Every structure is written in structure tokens, then in C-alpha cells.
Structure prediction request, 424 residues.
Amino acid sequence: MRLFRLPFYLVAALIVLSVWGASAQTDPYANVPQSQSLEGFANLGYPSALVNVVIYAAFDDPASAEFWLNAYRGLLPRVQNGEIRLIFVPLVGQGDIPGGRLAARAAICAGDQGRFWQYADRAFAQIIAAGADAFTGDFLDRAARDTGLDLRGYQECTTLSDGPDAILRDAELAVSRDSFFSRTPFVKLNESPTLTDLESLNFAIDVQLTEANEDVIAAQSTPTPDPEATEEAEPLVVDAVTGQQIAPPITLTLPDGWQTGLDVLVLQDIDAIRNIPFAVYTGAVSGGTGTIVLLWGFPNLLPASAVTLSGEIRPEMLDLYLDGTRLLRVAVVEQGCNIGTDIRRSYSIGGLEAIGTGFAAVDCPQLTDTRGWFAGLRQYELNFVFYAFVEPIAAFDAAQADLQAILDTAQFALPPTPAPTPAP
Prediction:
């Protein structure tokens, strides 16, 4: 049985479509990467930005247009300097502007050519200028020409493709699961809802950046073991392990030829040094190599509000999305990668609902680009997070179903012994 060595390097689900303008002085989008998430939501900014600003807005909603004019444009300098990254979740049925769904589809098709944000500029400005008559006549096609789109590809997308409708369905699903959402415009900073005026947004961003920078400084001041040299043929590397092979309390049905590795990771977590058992499963998938990494038996990091006066934990405060994101960055991602993550969503592990997000890692120092997702759930009082990814990155679309088919076979069993305790 082969033992893999780690940082398993994963992360944010991005198909980067860089768009370069002639001059940053005349084009606010010049030299700023545009990309799409796994669901097809438009991203603007650098994946390494410390704050994700998720904008829920609608092209049939005058309030969304006012937000675009008065707040969104004021955020662009912070996108350009790498402080924040914008994610646009397109909704319909939020206002009374006729043709809003057609405009949303058109903007999504512009995003296929890396021009979503430029197209949205024109669409929202048109709502401000013309109100209910914004999308009458041939405005949408004229906006496509003005935005510099390839018109043949744009027309094929808007008239023949069902891709835009799938993205709009994913957007509706995202807001249906968000208990804080009421109506557009709605904005979240790193999963935290915020007011939508520019002054409040800038204040909340400043707070988030301060906290994120403090975390980075603290992490950099913590000594870490020197990484071991990697063999050229090995795509995975483990920094600090105990040599213990603890079998996870699950079973997975693996395809022929897949390999399994077991060990216990010694991790400098946010609040302590921990021993966290892990399993690595890897083998051939459609178009490349698939890997599933399982971490389990780790504690949740909880805010003070999650603990009652009697010391009991409120179960509703346990959030494996936050724990999965934390472990992704401190245990799974190779330092130096260009990292990004998608928005929160539900997945399935063995037919059970799990919470997680997509990720991708590019430009890593030692490892090849990869793309995948993680999903976490709690069974028998134990936490589990599965990280599934594919290399090369271009193989993800073809291989995603192969990895999900393996995760569908997961069966959980009551563990015979307690999970490892933190190292002294």
C-alpha cells in the first residue's frame, strides 16, 4: 500500500478567462481577470483576494440598477488593487422591468466571452435611463455589439443554448437556501450579509480585510516543518505525519486499479496542534487522474455564541462549510498556489446531504493545476470532509461524474474507538 505525502493542494473552481484592455485609465476592467464559477456565475478580480463580495441582483429590478450605479462602481478600485473579488449571482422575477430574463440570459452569454461585467454595465445603465422600456427594440443585440462580442457566438448562446437557464436555476437554488435573503440587491462578504450602500460596504470590507490580514500574519509567525523533497513521479506530498494507519469508519467502492493511503496528519490548526487522520484514494478517471482525500475526527471551530452558559454546544451552530474551508487552506492547499473558492452549496455523500463548495488551484510551485470540490457532513458524532479533485484541470468536466459515483458508494459505520486527541 503506497503512502502519499501531503500538501494535497486543491482549490477554487475557476475557468480563468483573462480580459486585457488597452488602458486601465479608460477601462475599469483592464488587466482584471474575469472568470466563471462552477455554476457559471461571473467572477471579477483576482482569486487570491482576501474578501469575496457576492452580489445577488436582477436585470428586471430597478433597485439592482440603482445599486449598480451608486455602490458597485465604487467597489471597482478595490477589485483592481486585489483587495476583493466580485461574484454575481443573476436572479429573475425580482422586479417589474419587462424582458429582464432575456437581459439576464444575454449577460450570461456575454460572460461566456469574458465580457459579463461590461455587458451588465450597459444593461443596468439602460434601466436607469429608460425604466420599463429598457429592453424594448434591439437594445440587447446593440449592447452585444457595443461590448465587442463575437455576434455569432452570442446569438447561438442566446437562441440555442440552455446553459443560461441552468445558471439561472442554480442562482434561484442558491437564494432559496439562504435564510438571510429577502430581495435584490443582496450582498454578502465572505458569507456574511451586509448593507448595500457604498459606505457600509467599504466599512465591512475594511473589517474583513483587517481580520484576514491578522490571520495571515499569525499563520506566518507559526513555525512549520520543512517540507520533504518530493519524488518527481509523485503528485501528492505529506509534510508531517505520524505513521499511524487508522482506517476511516466508512467504506468506499473504488474502481479497479485505484490505490489507498492512510496516515495521521500533525497539523498546526488555528487554536492548537492537532492529529487528524486522513485517507487518500487515487486512480484513473476520464481524461486524467482523480483523487479523493478524506479528513475526519477533527473538532469544529465555533464562535462563542455557539456555546450555552452550561457549556453545551448548539448543534445548529456547527458549520462544516467553515471547517472544510479552513482545512482546505491550512491542510490541503500547497502554499504558493493561486487559490479560489466557489460559493456555498449542497453535495451528496453516500446519499446524505453534505455542505461544501468548489475549488481550484493554479500556478502552484510544485504541483499541477487542479480543480474539484469539497463536501462535509457529520455522522455518529464525527466530522467528515471529502475533497475530490482532478488533474489535469481540463479533465474536470469529464471526470466529475466518475468521482461522484465513488462518493455515492460511501457507507458510514460507528467507529470502534474514539478519534485521535490533540497532540500535547
